[in-house]
Amino acid sequence: MTQSQQPDLGGDTERAHLAAAVDSADDAILSMSLEGSILSWNKAAEKLYGYTAVEVLGKPMSPLVPENRAAEVPRFLDQIKRGQPIDHYETVRVTKDGRHVPVSFTISPIRDADGNVLGASTIASDISVRKDAKTHLAQMEVRYRALLEAAPDAMVVVNQDGEIVLLNVQAEKRFGYRRDELLGQEVKRIIPEGFAERLIADDLRSAKDALAQQIDSGIELNGRRKDGSEFPIEMMLSPLKSAEGTLVTAAIRDITARRMSDARLLEKVKELNRSNEELEQFAYIASHDLQEPLRMVASYTELLSRRYKGKLDSEADEFIAFAVDGASRMHRLIQDLLSYSLVGTKETTLLDASSEDAFQKALGHLRGTIEESGAVMTHDPLPTVLADKVQLIQVFQNLVGNAIKYQNPGVPRVHISAAKDWEENWVFSVQDNGLGIDPQYFDRIFGVFQRLHKRDEFAGTGIGLAICKKIVERHGGSIWVESQPEQGSTFRFALKGSGRKS
Amino acid sequence: MKVMEENSKLRNVLLVEDSPGDVRLTQEIFHAANRSIQLHVASDGVEAMAFLRRERAHDHAPRPDMILLDLNLPRMDGREVLAQIKENESLKTIPTIILTSSDAEVDIVTSYQLKANCYLSKPVQLDAFEGLVNSINDFWLTKVKLPQQAQSE
After folding, report:
1. SS3 content of chain B, % helix, strand, coil (to 5)
2. A190 near A204, Cβ under 8 Å?
3. What CATH number does residue A54 fall under?
4. Measuring CA to CA, which of A251, A300, A444, A484 is 20 to 30 A from A331?
5. How many domains does the structure of chain A reveal?
6. Do A51 and A76 sit in the same domain of this protein?
7. What per-residue string of b and e applies to A93-117 under the rule 16 or more CB within 10 Å gives b?
8. Inter-chain touch A291–B124, beta carbons under 8 Å
9. Residue A217 CB neighbours (<10 A)
10. Residue pLDDT, tens place only, B34-91
11. Which pLDDT belongs to residue A213?
């Protein structure tokens, strides 16, 4: 520390200690006479202002003061003369190279043993970094506010006491308040329940949890407008660390419209289910009740034909034959419609089922057909799947039955296999060497009572594949065919969620 | 009568059935199966009970060897008729066979719970119906041993 000769400020030893302490200080420390000339100047002062002690000692302060602040120095000195210190005064000083530096001053009077003011000691710290930080913060706040205002949702920032510290224009609109009516108010005023209670918990939550919650769906609560009316809201919270503690930013979305469309959708689904059920029920009742009169027609035409065949004229015989045939076909149609509707009305019970076993049972039901046709049946090991076994048997029975039925003269060969697809579903294949199917009919064959052949070529009502489709779909799976005319067909069906080990 | 062949012994059967078409058809087929069957017809539950209790116009009605009972009947349905028969000390020993177009599980279960002797559904095809009637005749009207005397009421 460099000091001019006068005035004497104390004993030698004391002065040496003080000088060492002052010199090593981080803040610029200087002293000046009551006339404003510089008496001492430490290292930090050299660093801050760029002047060495030699350059300034004994000289006035004025080169360090910007012109527009020239009045400050006499004012300080006046105050000091009256014995009043100046605490943390922020101003600007000019360095040797002409830079303006923001500084904070603490100026204290220097007194002699009798308490007379001899001069002033000034501690100055460079606050440009702090100023930068403040500017940065202010900029951030401007950006943050801009973001808040740009958000399509109402945004409210709340402190740990549950008071609103910031809000955007959407929040004003949604809740019907002016900004100043809400700032500093409890958030309970606009969100009566569920928000304030969450603030404490939120502070304790890790940022990771908080993030998880944001990614997750929000919290559904009720908002209250200024007029007292309430509306459903969805709220996403994110904690915001700040100088005032953890603040919570709440993005609030009015979900009145969504609630209404959800409700409408639910209503539609219910309606659809109801009408579906009614339809299933209708099909069942219709097919069941149709059996009664049909039984009469079938039985009596049959009785007619037995008792009067050859006793009336040949035309009568022919007419009766048509009636008998028609009744018997109608009987089959109704039976098939009944079994089709039963797939819909009966509960599908999904349990672990051996598809091998189901397949063998289906073969048992088809024994007559298989023996009659001389079909060669082969199969790979078949897995255990999650399925309604009775229905699985039916699917195998219908597919294998078809494979044997739609054949050229020759030996029908049918191969059954199962493999897992990329989604771990079991896909079953029933492959035959039969007639094959033109790709244009691939969709049609799975419809109710759809047939590709004349009745005198192949018997049947055309319900088999429709039943298979319905069963497989009730299992959450799908069924399809791969085929070319004269190349055989492969029917495949996937049972969803049945990816179990065989 | 005792000396006659079992098959030619006169058998009284009460058919409780409201559909004339079904009545006639059943008559035809039973007639073809066994000519010594006397088929009595009640067209609803009330009439059936009157016949069995020999009430009103039925005071000379014979005690049937077997009852063929439809479930869906006007006035008093087959389930009530079945319940009353099986609660009656005298009537409960008469084999009561449910012959109906329903094959609903609930009907089957209810019938057996009400102590039906067996449950048969009416087949649509004539051949099948004939087969069924022949089975009934062979078993219930020929092979089965029944008490000779009605138990006192």
Report:
1. 45, 15, 40
2. no
3. 3.30.450.20
4. A444
5. 4
6. yes
7. bbeeeeeebbbbbbbbbbeeeeeeb
8. yes
9. 9
10. 888 999 999 999 999 999 999 878 888 899 999 999 998 888 889 999 999 999 999 9
11. 52
Residue B4 binned pLDDT confidence (cut-offs 50, 70, 90): very low
B79 reaches A (C-beta below 8 A): no
Q: Is A501 contained in some domain?
A: no
Please give the Cα distance from B141 to B130 (Å, whole number): 15
Q: What is the 3-state secondary structure (H, E, C) of A96-144?
A: CCCCEEEEEEEEEEEECCCCCEEEEEEEEEECHHHHHHHHHHHHHHHHH
What is the per-residue pLDDT for A497?
56
Domain-embedded: residue B37: yes
Question: Taking CB atoms and an 8 Å limit, are A331 and B126 in contact across chains?
Answer: no
Domain range spanning residue B106? 8-142
Q: Which chain B positions have a beta carbon within 8 Å of A300's beta carbon?
A: 21, 25
Q: Do residue A460 and residue A420 come from a single domain?
A: yes
Identify whether A34 is part of a domain. Answer: yes
Q: Does B120 touch chain A (CB under 8 A)?
A: no
Answer for the pair A436, A483: CB distance below 8 angstroms, yes or no: yes
In the Cβ-directed half-sphere of B42, how many Cα atoms lie within 13 Å? 31
Is this prediction's pTM over 0.80? Answer: no
Partner A contacted by B22 (CB < 8 A): yes
- In a shared domain, residues A359 and A486: yes
Give the end of a domain, one of A301, A318, A343: A343
Positions in chain A whose pLDDT score sits under 50: 211-212, 215-216, 498-502
Residue keyed to tokens 């076909």: A329
ipTM of the complex: 0.78
> Is there a single domain that holds both residue A171 and residue A55?
no
Domain around A337: 262-343
Between the alpha carbon of residue A6 and those of residues A32, A38, A100, the distances in Å are 11, 11, 31
Quick check: is B2 in a domain? no
Number of domains composing chain B: 1
Residue B56, phi-psi category: left (phi > 0), alpha (psi -120 to 50), beta (remainder): left
Which of B19, B122, B124 lies nearest to residue A331, judging by beta carbons? B124
Contacts of A258 (CB under 8 A, 6+ apart): A234
Domain CATH for A337: 1.10.287
pLDDT of residue A430: 94
pLDDT of residue A348: 75
Q: What does the angle CA B73 – CA B78 – CA B79 come to, to the nearest 5 degrees?
A: 135
A38 and A120 fall within a common domain: yes
Residue A289 lies in a domain: yes
Indicate whether A367 and A480 sit together in one domain: yes
Do A250 and A326 belong to one domain? no
Record: contact A331-B122, CB cut-off 8 A: no
